[in-house]
Write a structure and sequence with these properties.
11 helices; two-stranded antiparallel sheet; Rossmann fold; six-stranded mixed sheet; alpha/beta; 13% strand; 8 strands
C-alpha cells in the first residue's frame, strides 16, 4: 500500500464518521452555528487555531470540510502556537494533524515560561498572551478572523461560573471584534456542539488528543480555576439525572435574556439600573 493511501484511509474514515455516524450531533450543529450567527462570509481568510485538544482538532476538520463543500469561497490557515510544549506533546499534535489530514503551520513562543513566573494569576496571563500571539500571527498570514474551539458546554459553564464565583451573569458570544487588532474578528464554530458528542466522536475513531499540556497545571493539578470548572461540570451532570435537557435549557436561556426584569445590568457605556426607566 502506498503512503498516500495509508494516509487517505483514516482521513476518509474520520470524515465519514462526521458526515454519517455523527451528522446530527456534529456536522448539523456546526453548520447551524455558522449560519445562525453568520460566522463566515465570502472572501474570509480564517486562522483555525489548534491547541492539540479534541475540540480544536475537531474544529479544524469541520472547517476543512466546510471549505471544501461551501457554496461560497473562503480560505483557512491551520495555526498551531507552541507556547512551550514538551517534545512528546509537540509530536502528538503534529502526528494527529497528519492523521486528520490537516496541514498545520506551527510557530513557537515562550508563553509558558513567562506565565509561570506570575505566581498569582498565571492562567489569566497565559490566556491573554496566547490570544495576542494568535491574533498577531493570523494577521501576518493575511487572515481577518481567528476561530477558537469553544463548545456549548464552555458557554453554559461560563454562565454558571460567573454567577457562582464572580457575582455576574455573562457568557461567551459566538463571535466578537478584537479590541486590540483592528479588522480582526474571533469566531466560535463549535458553539452549538455538546462536549459529550465530541468525546463520543473521538472515542469512535480511537483518537488520542492532548488533555492539558500546560506545565503549570501539570504541577498544580488542583488549581483553583480548574477545580471550579470541574465542580460546575459535575453539577450539570447531577442536574441531568432529573432533567436530561438541562444543557439545552441553560444554552437557550442565554439566547432569551429579559433585560427588563433585571434590577441592574451593564451596557457598553457602563452600569444601569431598572430605576432609570421605572
Amino acid at each position: 500500500m502506498s503512503d498516500e493511501k495509508r494516509v487517505a484511509d483514516p482521513v476518509r474514515k474520520i470524515e465519514n464518521s462526521i458526515l454519517k455516524t455523527y451528522r446530527s450531533r456534529l456536522w448539523a450543529p456546526f453548520i447551524n452555528a455558522v449560519k445562525q450567527y453568520e460566522l463566515i462570509q465570502e472572501g474570509d481568510r480564517i486562522a483555525v487555531c489548534i491547541s492539540g485538544g479534541k475540540d480544536s482538532m475537531l474544529m479544524a476538520k469541520l472547517m476543512q470540510m466546510l471549505c471544501r463543500y461551501s457554496d461560497f469561497p473562503f480560505s483557512v490557515e491551520y495555526l498551531v502556537m507552541d507556547p512551550g510544549y514538551n517534545k512528546e506533546n509537540r509530536r502528538k499534535i503534529e502526528d494527529n494533524a497528519r492523521l486528520l489530514g490537516i496541514p498545520i503551520t506551527v510557530f513557537e513562543t515562550n508563553v509558558f515560561e513567562v506565565a509561570n513566573m506570575q505566581l498569582k494569576y498565571p492562567c489569566y496571563l497565559c490566556a491573554k498572551m496566547r490570544r495576542g500571539y494568535l491574533y498577531r500571527n493570523a494577521k501576518d498570514l493575511g487572515c481577518n478572523k481567528i476561530a477558537l474551539g469553544h463548545h456549548l458546554n464552555d458557554v453554559i459553564e461560563t454562565v454558571l461560573m460567573g454567577m457562582f464565583y464572580s457575582s455576574q451573569i455573562q457568557t461567551m458570544p459566538p463571535k466578537l471584534h478584537s479590541r486590540n487588532f483592528e479588522g480582526m474578528e474571533l469566531i466560535r464554530p463549535l458553539y452549538c456542539i455538546r462536549e459529550d458528542d465530541i468525546i463520543a466522536w473521538r472515542n469512535y475513531n480511537g483518537l488520542d488528543f492532548l488533555q492539558c499540556a500546560c506545565s503549570y497545571t501539570e504541577r498544580n493539578e488542583n488549581g483553583e480555576n480548574e477545580s471550579k470548572r470541574k465542580e460546575i461540570k459535575e453539577l450539570i451532570r447531577t442536574l441531568r439525572r432529573t432533567n436530561p435537557d438541562i444543557e439545552e435549557s441553560l444554552f437557550n436561556s442565554v439566547h432569551n435574556v429579559s433585560i427588563t426584569t433585571f434590577p441592574g445590568y451593564r451596557l457598553s457605556d457602563g452600569k444601569h439600573s431598572f430605576l432609570e426607566k421605572y
